[in-house]
Amino acid sequence: MYDSVFIMGPTGVGKTELLSNLKFNEPLLAINVDSVQIYKNLFIGSAKPTPFQKKRIEYFLIDKLELDESYSAVKFYNDCASVLGQKKNIGQVPFFVGGTGLYFRAIEHGFSFVPMIGGQFREKIELELKDKGLPYLYEKLRKIDPKLASALHPHDKQRIMRGLEVFESTGRALSSFRSKERIKPLVSRPLKLVVFEPNKEIHHKNIEKRFNKMLEFGLINEVKTLLLRNPQVINSPGLRAIGYLQVIKYLTGVLSFTEMRSEAIQESKQLAKRQITWFKKERNTIWIESGRINDAIAKIMLELKN
Question: At the top level of CATH, which class does the domain 4-111+182-199+283-305 belong to?
C-alpha cells in the first residue's frame, strides 16, 4: 500500500493538469514541490494552478513565502513535516507535485545532518562570486569537494556556494558529512510517476509556446507592478527564477525584448534537461508520456484502490 504519490517531471509537461484530472470521492491533499510557486505574488511566470485546477484540491506550500525569503530542501522538509503532522489523522494519501528533484529526495530519503553555517562565510563566498565569477567558484569546489562538484551542474550557483561555505566553516567537504544523526524520511512507500515528453523537439516547442503565453498574459506588467510596489525586491530570491530574471534584465536595459525572450526560453530548456537527468537517477519510477495522461490517471486510481 502506497503512503504517498509523487508526480514528478521537467517543466512544461502537464503535471498540474494530471493532478487536476484525478477523480476521487474526497478532495485531494496536494503539496507543491516547485521552488517558484512557493512565492507569493508570482502568478503568470510560475504557472501556478488556476482556480479551476484547484477545485477539489487542497494545496499546500503555494504562496507561502515573501519574495525576499530564501528557501532550501531543509526548509521544505520541515514545512512538509508540519503539513503531514496536521493531516495525519484524516486518512488521505498526499500528492507531491512538482519538478524540484532535491525536495522529493529529501522527503523520501531524509538527509544527513550538516552544521549551521554563520553568515560571514556566505558573505565571503558572495564577494568571491562578484569578483571572480561562478566558473571560478565551481573550479574551487572541484578541488576541495570533487564528489559534490561532479554531481552539480556548473551553473548551480546555490549549491556550489553551499559546498564552499560548508568547507570554509568546518574544514570538511560537504559530501563527507554522513552523520549517524540522519534526518528520517517523511514517506516510506511513494508511488513515483515521472511525466515527460519523449520527443525533445516537441518538448522544446512546448516550452517556447509556454513562455510566449506568459508574455501574452502580462508577465512583463506583473514584474513592473512588483518593482513599483517595492523596488527593493529586484534582487530578491523569488525574482531569480527563470523568466522573472530575464524580464528584470529587459526592464533594466540589460537585454532587448528579443534577447530576453530568447534567454528565458533557452534557460527553461536547460532546466528541463537537468530535471530529466535528475529523475533518470531516481529508482522505482514509472515514466508516463505527457500525451498519455489518461494512462497515469488510470495507474494512480488502480494503485490507490488496492
Answer: alpha beta
